[in-house]
Write a sequence for this structure.
């Protein structure tokens, strides 16, 4: 089915550790289980557009529990997709309705700008209502289990990391191409049909575009794992909407202290948001965590991050300790970020991962 893009992308199919921590992802990738968004479309949701937001959330919380028991029925083959009618309104439709309301008073991310994006107001991320795409292609540079990954880069981000490698995308230096959700359906399906193991939603950050992604996947009709490739700075409301929609949480864990997050990424309350969202990811899907090691941030960031992961998410969780840092964009504004990692720092990061007890990390 897949071209052997990279030897490790083939070898990972037999990697017991990767398969154990991402078991359901592998099953969906191999079409032996259903992606969450497909199941979500089969779960009936009784609501109407006049319902209050509080009422919609109450129903959503109830249906989230029902969703996971329905998923279990599908996974154990007690239920087949064709046995269930498609409801008039589904759990996925309910998520979309809630996302529409959030756009009126935007709080998709921790910044909670509160702007009415439906009225043309733009918040910190400068995202309006028309999803804007930089590129989409079969990405061969991701973790081996994801490659080839059907990656869709959207413009805009909820952070301004001074060292951002995708700064032309995240900060709107590119114009991009506007898509309607309906027009995104075919490219998404094409990525899967052309051999991608997943659809990988990234940017910038996918968070500001959650409403458009929910609308897109209402119409997608191929079984494909959905990967949420994010900076982890999204709100709790977004975390709830992702449950029952996202298969793999590919989450950055950037900082071990709020002071570093504020100074480097302009991200108040990063630690609280990031840890909460990782816990949501663990409860409602499968995690693949990225820890980008930054020069001179091993004690304040790498160490507490790796320890927290081991203690709260499990020592077996798939963690990519990344050494790819290079100074980009405005990294020169942060003195210690003007250089790449040293060999000693790389060795120290591996030592920290081992000392934390992590047994399933890659570099
Ligand atoms: S997604 Fe954008 S507009 Fe919405 S709260 Fe975050 S930064 Fe503000």
């Amino acid at each position: 089915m897949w071209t052997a893009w990279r030897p490790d992308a083939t070898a990972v199919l037999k990697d017991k550790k990767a398969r154990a921590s991402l078991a359901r992802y592998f099953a969906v990738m191999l079409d032996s289980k259903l992606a969450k968004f497909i199941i979500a479309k089969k779960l009936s949701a009784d609501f109407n557009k006049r319902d209050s937001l509080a009422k919609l959330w109450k129903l959503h919380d109830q249906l989230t529990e029902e969703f996971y028991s329905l998923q279990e029925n599908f996974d154990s083959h007690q239920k087949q997709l064709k046995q269930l009618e498609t409801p008039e309104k589904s759990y996925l439709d309910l998520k979309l309705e809630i996302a529409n309301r959030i756009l009126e008073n935007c709080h998709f991310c921790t910044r909670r700008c509160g702007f009415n994006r439906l009225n043309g107001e733009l918040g910190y991320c400068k995202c309006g209502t028309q999803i804007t795409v930089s590129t989409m292609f079969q990405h061969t540079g991701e973790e081996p289990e994801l490659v080839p990954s059907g990656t869709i880069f959207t413009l805009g981000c909820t952070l301004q990391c001074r060292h951002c490698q995708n700064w032309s995308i995240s900060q709107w230096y590119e114009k991009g191409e506007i898509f309607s959700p309906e027009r995104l359906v075919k490219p998404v399906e094409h990525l899967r049909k052309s051999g991608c193991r997943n659809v990988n939603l990234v940017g910038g950050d996918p968070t500001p575009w959650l409403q458009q992604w929910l609308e897109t996947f209402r119409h997608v009709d191929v079984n494909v794992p959905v990967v949420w490739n994010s900076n982890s700075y999204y709100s709790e409301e977004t975390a709830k909407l992702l449950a029952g929609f996202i298969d793999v949480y590919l989450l950055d864990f950037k900082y071990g202290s709020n002071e570093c997050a504020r100074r480097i990424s302009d991200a108040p309350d990063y630690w609280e948001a990031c840890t909460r969202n990782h816990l949501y990811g663990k409860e409602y899907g499968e995690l693949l965590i990225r820890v980008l090691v930054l020069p001179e941030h091993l004690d304040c960031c790498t160490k507490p991050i790796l320890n927290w992961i081991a203690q709260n998410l499990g020592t077996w969780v798939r963690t990519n300790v990344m050494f790819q840092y290079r100074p980009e964009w405005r990294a020169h504004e942060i003195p210690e970020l003007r250089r790449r990692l040293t060999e000693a720092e790389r060795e120290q990061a591996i030592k920290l991962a081992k000392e934390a007890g992590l047994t399933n990390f890659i570099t």
Notes: The first strand starts at residue 132 and ends at 139. The CA atoms of residues 258 and 270 lie 6 Å apart. Residues 106-109, 111-113, 115, 123-125, 127, 158, 207-208 surround iron/sulfur cluster (CB under 6 Å).
